[in-house]
Amino acid sequence: MFSRMLDRLRGRYARLAEQDIVRAIDIIVEQTDPRLRFVSGYRRKLRKPVVRSLVYTDDLVTRIPGPFEISRKTYGSDPQVNALFGSVDDIEVLFARSNMLQRFFRDTPGCDVVYVPLIMLRREKRIMGMALSGDIVRREVARTAVNFSEHRLGIVCAASEAELRGELQWRGIYFLAVTALANITRLKAGSTQLEKQRALLKMKLRDVQAQHRGLDALVTTTPADVQERQALEQRLKDTGRKLEEARTGLATLDDYLTQVCTVCNHPSRFLRVRHNSVTVDRMGIVPDAMSHQPGAEVVSATISIGENPPVEMMLAAFRRADMA
To answer: Mean per-residue pLDDT for 255-270?
Structure first.
């Protein structure tokens, strides 16, 4: 299995177009700090990390299932669609009355199908229900119910599946660029905060030292006073060390570039996808040994983007004829 995954990734490396690599580097630089162009050999230094991010985001969007045709008809015939929506009216509200989809069809008169990410939350909970055991109806039987809620459409749509997946990949590159910028900003803000903290500790230490320079210190100084002074000195020393590390990490544009490369070299820290599959019946209940109703597999992808809560995502296809 691992060798197959390596072969797949090598194949994606080989298929990368040079113009896409150049475009990705330009996006990363423009969205983080355009001054990085003044760093000698910045394209060469960014190339391998950016290629790694391109391959990773391509693999990520490929693992999003779909597209599934969403309509009144498929709600009744496709268990996947049926499991996602509480009623056919929910499809009407989300898709047929979507301003974004209406604009898309208005602006692309020759296109009859639009492709769009469908995003939602998935919850599982234990409920008490009934089950048939032979000829006996058993009540208060614990069952697992799967529910999809808070549906929304992604902010991008396209005329084909390939175009949509490509757009999602580039949005992944933009997100990594923004993440790198956020990390740089956080480091700079942390440095400023450490400077303030060090100044405050110096003031406290001077105050403590001043209290023990008078003649009264001969008779009033206690072990607790000494411990307080030593603790302040140690905190001041630790804060100074942290400040020096923070300043060293962003002293030059090369340091900025290093921060960008770190994000692009490890895209899985900020973008993650996991395949999900669950079998449910028409009521959204997971069948068990006593179930007589057949279940159908429902697939989705759990997407985690940065610090945001994970969501379920799949690709949907919606026809112009089904618009409101």
So the answer is: 93
> pLDDT exceeding 90 applies to what percent of the chain?
52
Q: How far apart are CA 118 and CA 297, in angstroms?
A: 18
The string of DSSP letters for 267-317 reads GGGTEEEEEEEEEE-TTSBPP-TT--S--EEEEEEEEEETTSPPEEEEEEE
Q: Which residues of 151-167 are buried (b: 16+ CB within 10 A; e: fewer)?
A: bebbeebbeeeeebbeb
Which is nearest to 153 in space by CA: 233, 97, 234, 86? 97
Across 89-178, the runs of DSSP E, i.e. the strands, are 113-133, 136-153
Distance CA 281, CA 292 (A): 10
Q: Is the pLDDT of residue 128 over 50?
A: yes
Interatomic CA distance for residues 156 and 213, integer angstroms: 69
* Parallel, antiparallel or unpaired: strands 311-319 and 113-133: antiparallel
DSSP-assigned beta bridge partners for residue 317: 69, 115
Give SS3 for 52: helix
What is the C-alpha end-to-end distance of the chain, expressed in Å? 46
19, two tokens: 């113009």
Q: Tell me which of 22-31, 111-120, 188-197 is least confident.
A: 188-197
Q: Cβ of 105: how many Cβ atoms within 10 Å? A: 17
Distance between CA atoms of residues 169 and 60, nearest Å: 8
Torsion angle of alpha carbons 187, 188, 192, 198, nearest 10°? 40
- 201 contacts 232 by C-beta, under 8 angstroms: yes
